[in-house]
Structure prediction request, 1039 residues.
Amino acid sequence: MIAYIVRRLFYAIPILIGVNLLTFVLFFVINTPDDIARSQLGDRHLTAESIDNWKRAHGYHKPLLYHSEAAGMDKLIDTVFFDKSVRLFAMDFGRSDSGRDIGHDISQRMWPSLAIAVPTLLVGIGLNITFALLIAFFRATFIDYWGVVICVVLLSVSSLFYIIGGQYLLSKLFHLVPISGYDTGWNAIKFLVLPVIIGVISGIGSGTRWYRTLFLEEIGKDYVRTARAKGLSERVVLFRHVLQNALIPILTGVVVLLPLLFMGSLIVESFFGIPGLGSYTIDGIQRQDFAIVRSMVFLGSVLYILGLLLTDISYTLVDPRVRL
Amino acid sequence: MFKVLIVSLGLGVPASVAAVWNNPYPAAQDEQNILYSSFSERPKHLDPVRAYSSDEYMFIAQIYEPPLQYHFLRRPYTLVPLTTDGIPEVVYFNREGVPLSADVSVADIAYSEFTIRIRAGILYQPHPAFAADDQGVGLRRPMSSSELAAVRTLADFQRTGTRELTADDYVYQIKRMANPQLHCPIAGVMGQYIVGFSELSEDIARTLEQNDYGDYLDLRRFPLTGVTTIDRYTYRIRIKGKYPQFLYWQAMPFFAPMPWEADRFYSQAGLQEKNISLDWFPVGTGPFMLTQNNPNLRMVLDRNPNFRSEQFPMLGQEGDAASGLLADAGRPLPFIDRAIYSLEKESIPRWNKFLQGYYDHSGISSDSFDQAIQFSARGDAQLTERMRQRGIGLSTAVAVSSYYMGFNMLHAVLGGDSERARKLRRALSIAVDFEEFIAIFTNGRGVAAQGPIPPGIFGNLDGEAGVNPYVYDWIDGRARRKPISVAKALLREAGYPNGMEASTGKPLVLHFEAVARGPDDKARLNWLRKQMAKLSIQLVVRATDYNRFREKMLKGTGEIFFWGWNADYPDPENFLFLLYGPNAKALHNGENASNYENAEFDELFSQMKNMENGARRQAVIDRMLNIVRRDAPWMWGFHPQAFSLHHAWIRNMQPNLMANNTLKYVRIDPELRAARRLAWNEPVLWPMGLVGVLFGLSIVPAVIGYRRREKSTAL
Prediction:
């Protein structure tokens, strides 16, 4: 397995270089270094000299991808792309274009993101599995029919509607929780209730339908028929046998998400004023802060690759037939 | 928290134990003397040498104290001393260094000298940069790695200290403005005026290139010939020529004092990596100090315990006493102990929290406008019944800003000095109905502009004398836009009858450079097309992002565009320079975006900018306004009106759109606020019970079905 993991980590390097290159090209197609300097310095009383000073101080004065006047490897090395990219592979994110240390900001902002994402994931999985098992138990009845209809309705609604509706009902109308905000430590709980409820409800439709499909697929298999033939009750068949076997795809689907929980939710964090990494990314894009955008895309890619690797490893843990 | 846990578990509690559940602040703060407010954009910089936007000044103007400030109540906006013992006197000199009288011709003035004397006894806020050990020796040594490891934020420094403000601190800050490493946005402007500023900048740049100064670049060792310390409390600034507006700059944080100890403290290795820098943790002498700096969540300003005595103004304008604005006259400032600003990016939660009493004051977004404001039959804005019942107050003021639609004067059809082009521009100016624009897109919050100078700034005249006669007629005591027939006639005279080019018969097609961001913009652009269609002119919208728009402006390749300007200071020069030829954007990278050039206007501008306010200056401005109204390089657009709401428990919310340091005047009645919050936010519990009952009922058929299935026999 170790050889497999090492091999996969080596595969990650060209992928990350590609992602980095793509981000770089897309960003600089829209924004020139002069644009970045202007957005940082502001428009008023701005001189060409100030722009040049800023670019020089932030390393944007070099050619972007290819330095035609340099010699040898410097043609590739003495460029903005190389300067800004190479340190990322040591997870050194450097400074944002406005001067803040990105690594420090990430280390501060990942906790609020996790504080929402982890309970939403856990409660969501629990509820979705429960509802899916219930619907599977009553398959081909009106409960199954209406359950699926409700799921389709729930998954058709925009997440923005859940957020605004939730804030309106629970906070504005019923005064049960703060409408937005965040705090540290235990004081954060009252701010997390609403986003977690909304996160769970908005995921019920798709999650329940997906898990129901998995359970129904298992229910049709021979071992379930054998269990029933042995006289086991439907409850035992479902909870002891079907659930256990259906957990394999559920688990692997969840494991791939685990590292990405750090990255936060763009919309939820913005509407609830949660200072997580989702809103950090949005801020970076809006401010044309290439250093933040580049770092967050790189971090997202690394975490996704890590998630896929963990998924592969989790296969071997839940299914002994799989060997890496 | 326990109650919230109960909510999260879906259990009900009797209403008797319910206080306020949706309070975003700790209950212990309920009756404390704290102002609650919000900010929507994270400030980029809190270093006074770099900060230059309203969301940054909101914080640093309460902390840093430049020599002068704007009087809180007096209008027109008036400079008064802040840390000085008076308004600095200016002395003029000729090339030989001989002092000149005040009424001497501008051409004879080679230099102006401002002597600024600050008051003694002003202390800085407590700060670790001034910390001393038990023997009183300053702790200025670099921190060890173990000391550094224990520091996460500025509050982790156990020892703090203070010292008296001196003239050297002001001089040091001016030197910081010249430091190219700090990217001061007005360094270019100051380089044109302050003697020796550019040379200092080059000197520092050379030192930076040599890179042999260690962690801290001590600016005290660099000479700045135009700025000298006279004594402990006095310094002198020498500028080139005459520049009366220089005093206004002395009311901006750029010229606030900076103790060299702070600069050195933040230069210590390791602090930058923890985002502990002068750019994020200000050090000032003002009424407040920043004690919590989490720009992603919350900024907290606490009362500076070392703040000197300053009193609420004794005098205001006529009517201020009657309206209660002088009720606090002579009382010591500041009134509040703390101000908590929460990051609130979205307008809906911000508005709802204001209505719940969790923000003390609020602007009004378009989404909420109808809830808050209605217009009387006479067109006056007033609060809705619901707002009045809550005791909410409304403050309005015309902003010292101009939003205009400019023509690129370099363009072959629209630009130039020909009578044809002038008539075409004037026809368009009449056709584009900004009164309608204000009513539709700004909820009536604005005043149609008669020229570049907003109301409240010297040079703007009320009534008939202030009307643009090329676009408006004065009828029945008010300005009325000329009928569209006048615009059509002008268009015909310009050679475009019915919107067709007379010589070729081709339709006149104009292009609008739009920075389109969303659905709201689409409505605006459609409206603009309809305005042009009144003259049968086709308007093609060239939508782009702001970067490309800015590039077009810099290259002078745009045609018609929409832009705006907020005043740096309340002087007509700060608006008329937007039309000054040598400031043309495409030619000289200045702020004259329409690249307008008129020799007579430019000559008058050179005279006007150096004149004192008075009849002579007004006469020159009138001539200048007449020239630009005739030439119409802009459709004059509008001056926005700021609407602000505040609750009954907050006092002295008088809008002052030039002063940024108004937090010290705000007074709160915390008991009233606590009572209102309690009344407005009583939790409604029955929906939780209803959800529980519905959930229970939905379980019943499932249980019945389950039992029936378990008991049924196999086929």
Q: What stands out?
A: Chain A has a mean pLDDT of 88.
